[in-house]
Design brief:
The chain is α/β, with parallel strands linked by helices. It has one domain (7-208). The chain has 3 helices and 12 strands; from the N terminus they run E-E-H-E-E-E-H-E-E-E-E-E-E-E-H. The strands form 4 sheets. Strands 1-3-12-11-10 form a 5-stranded mixed sheet, sandwiched between helices. A 3-stranded mixed sheet has the order 2-4-5.
Length: 213
Amino acid sequence: MLDRAKAFLSVAHDEYWSRDVYEAVLRGRESGLSLAFLSGNAVYHEIQFYDSEVDWAPCRSFARKERFDDENLLMGTKSYGSAGGDWVITKPDHWVYEGTGLSAGDRIPGLISWEYHGTPADIEGLEVVAASALYPWSHYTSPDQNHSAVVFPCKKGNWVFNAGTIWWSEGLSQPPGHTPARTGRSGPFGVSEHVQRITQNVLDRMIVDSPRS
């Protein structure tokens, strides 16, 4: 499936990955697949699958095996736990912000939370397009209380975009019956035309620049 796609989307709270999935997505990226992490706390725990104890059907359950320590090499940042804050623009002239009218230092209030991505990786061409200091709101304290959203080009002309927040999708839509996410002092403020336009820019660029027909 990844061999036929132009873009792979990681959405919301994408925490649990097997090593096989990680390696498959990495191979896809190296062969021209763009990756959009519209998520937070992604690729955080490696899991092991187990057969059913009832009928022995394969891969019916899983358990956490260990913490990933190389997720940043795939998606451009480290994955962290609980904190909250605003999305703060650092590079308004970057193509991800085309058509948004945003300036350096502008904020999308409350967009960063439940869990997030922080420390950028040392990857050639990587750019930090949003960054902000966060405030913790639970007993869990991450080693880095700073959010980073990053973009970097790949060898085949494809891209990786990492929004770095579980609540990115809160800015995209609020379908009927949806209860907006909120916890403690942290929470987004509904649909954001800026989040919608950034997402459009990212997906359009990934499709147009894809080396895959």
